[in-house]
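hey m, so remember when u said the tokens were messed up on ur end? i reran from scratch. heres the input so u can diff it against urs
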Amino acid sequence: MADDLNVTAVADWVDDRLPGLGGDVTVHRFVVGQSNPTFRLDTPAGSYVLRRKPGGVLLKSAHAVEREFAVQKALQGTGVPVPQMHLLCEDVSVIGAPFYLMDHVDGRSFDDPRLPDQTPPQRAAIIDSMNATLAAIHDVDLQAVGLSDYGPGGDYYARQIGRWVKQYRATATEEIPAMEDLITWLEANTPGDDGRRTLVHGDYRIDNLLFAKDGTDVVAVLDWELSTLGHPFADLAAVIMQWRMPPGADGRGLAGVNRAALGLPSDADFIAAYCKRRGLDGINGFGFYLAFCFFRMGAILQGVKKRGMEGNASNPEKAAKLGAYVPLFAQQGLNAAQDE
């Protein structure tokens, strides 16, 4: 047993289906993130990554490592960079929860969109690669990669708002008036279904990407737990949502930052670059998509807070810190609604 992972049990299950796990294995648990516990397994044959569901009682459809595995396996060989997927174990008797194994990608991770260690041209190139990768996700041929049934049909936003309202109610620890006001506004202002239906990542932001060790290209898109088929503007708005948060270790945003001086694009420039890549004339009513993203993230962080209180979070102290941001996300959502 190492860092809450029974490596011997994993190796016994893998047997000879994946080289190296029968020999000496060094385990490192990644402490970032609050969702599915993730481990790097260094073996004589190479390094792998194992992601498993957390322990405890989980909300229905949450922490879907099976879906993470399926979508990344389907994307192998497409224009969307993902790690090489190897094995999925759905037998909870092996280590107490489903898990999967994939290659470890040796790339750079950035958790601060200000990119403090980069030059202005490097910053511009990194964010442009982030933009190009998002467009590539939304341009995936669902039929060709076998993902045409990866999510339900129908009105994506009506479905998502209904889902996250239920999730939020199930994990609420106190009443947050701004969240209630935001829910009311979203339910009253959901636009009609415009027929756009693509693969959506569901949590697209710079810290869920890996970049080349010696370059600015995205080499892996990670954390596909919230992926589904839906409306692409939700992913685009998620990027803008993150940037509107305060800068620093907790907010990880760009609010108040002189972007031009740093070589970073404005919100409008990022949206325009995305639209050009996808052949769009522009996006009307972007305030709704932004308000939706603030609400969804607030609901997610409320779930993180509840798991932390119950002792099921990967990092309980960080879970409490993130949970404290729920009212801020709700208010930001209401602010975005006024831009509608």
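this time it looks ok to me. The CA atoms of residues 172 and 302 lie 7 Å apart. if urs says something different then somethings off w ur setup not the seq
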